[in-house]
Structure formats: C-alpha cells, structure tokens
Design a protein that fits this description.
Structural class: alpha/beta
Number of strands: 9
Largest sheet: 7 strands, mixed
Helix content: 25-40%
Strand order of the largest sheet: 3-2-1-4-5-9-8
Order of helices and strands: HHEHEHEEHEEEHEE
Length: 220
C-alpha cells in the first residue's frame, strides 16, 4: 500500500469530519477535570503582540487571545468552522481569518506567538517534524509557542487498536469518520520537542488535558 496516499486520504477525512462537525462542535467540548486549568495557563502566558492561531476551529480560544494580542491571524481548513469563528469575535478588525490546509500552508509573515488549541494531537507522527518546521518559519527570532490539547480517546474509537493513532469518531447524525488522535504523554512530548530544538515545558492537568509553553532552545 502507498502509505503516503493512505495518509492523505486519512487527513482528507479528518478535514471532512471537522467541517461536518462544525455546527455542533461547541456542544462536543470535553467536560472533564483539568479543562479550566488550560484557560488559566494561557492567561498567565499572556500571548502579546502578533499571534498566529493554528487550527482555530470555531473560535474557541480566539477571544481569549485577543485580550492580550495586538492582532490575530486565525487559520483553519474548514470554511464552516471559520464562519462560526468570525461570528464569535466582536473585535473583527484585529483578526484575519485564513482558510488553508495546515499541511500545505506557508506563513506570509512572522509572529510573536504561535498558538494551537487541541490541534497537535491531530498531526500524524510522520509529519511532526515538518509541522514544527512550519512553526519555526512562522515565529520571530524571540517568538513563543503555547498549545493546549488532550489525550482523550474512548474504547469505542480505537477501531485499529490502542497502539494506533488512527481512531473513528462520529458526528451527531451517526456518520463515521477516521481521524488522527495521538495520545501524547506530556513527558514524552516534551522530549520529542527537545530533540527538535525546542525548549517547551509540557504540563499535565488533573484530567486528560495538558498544555505547553516555550520557545526555540537558546532564545529565552
């Protein structure tokens, strides 16, 4: 089998899933221990200056970013998600929404902060290094990174077994989609990032969530 083509099909199905889920996405947010810690950590981080939000979805985090940012560029592959996000942002003059596949997109400028909300776990392991090269290209020399994510996967979703990062999720109408969901352990994720030249501390919460903050090694 052509693994490259298989992965492209998987990522296409992942994009289709989030477009189909868009109207119901905000009703699907995980109500589990530790979720409130993420917002508190982002507030303490203070994402000031120009911020790039990767995979912004329906704008779950965009309003909080705007509390500190001078401007936000919010990128997502789903036009349905972007439409919802635009409707949730009152300060639209400070936000630029960009529809783009993050595995093909290249930034047209550099930013003080790159933020990711529940996106990193949807990046296939084979694309982990190239994705972080994108983050590097998007940052100013002293730029910072902040991400939040979770490792939550139900037994029913593990259609290829617990060792696989491919899972199956359903939209409220019952339609099944295969997507990527890497169940990162914070310490292991921190190690992987360190090997790529990042100085990022990954902090677990009381539940399945975690958050990471830092920059390129030697830039602090």
């Amino acid at each position: 089998m052509d693994t490259g083509s298989a992965q492209e099909r998987l990522l296409s199905e992942q994009r289709a899933y989030y477009s189909a889920l868009a109207p119901d996405y905000l009703d699907q947010l995980l109500d589990l221990p530790g979720g409130a810690e993420l917002a508190e950590a982002l507030e303490a981080f203070r994402p000031a200056g120009s911020v790039l939000e990767l995979a912004c979805g329906p704008g779950t985090w965009t309003p909080q970013l705007l509390r500190h940012a001078s401007d936000v560029t919010a990128v997502d592959a789903s036009p349905e998600m972007l439409a919802i996000a635009a409707g949730r942002v009152s300060e639209s003059a400070r936000v630029r929404f960009v529809e783009a596949d993050l595995f093909a997109w290249e930034p047209d400028r550099r930013y003080d902060v790159v933020f990711m909300g529940c996106w990193l776990s949807h990046v296939p392991a084979r694309r982990f290094e190239s994705f972080w090269s994108l983050v590097t290209a998007a940052l100013t020399p002293q730029g910072r990174v902040f991400f939040v994510d979770d490792r939550y996967r139900t037994p029913e979703e593990l259609v290829d077994g617990p060792a696989s990062s491919t899972i199956q999720r359903r939209t409220p109408d019952g339609t099944a989609y295969r997507i990527v969901k890497v169940p990162y352990e914070p310490a292991e994720l921190e190690r992987q990032l360190r090997e790529l030249g990042w100085d990022i501390t990954v902090t677990p919460t009381a539940g399945p969530f975690f958050w990471g903050a830092g920059n390129r090694a030697g830039q602090s």
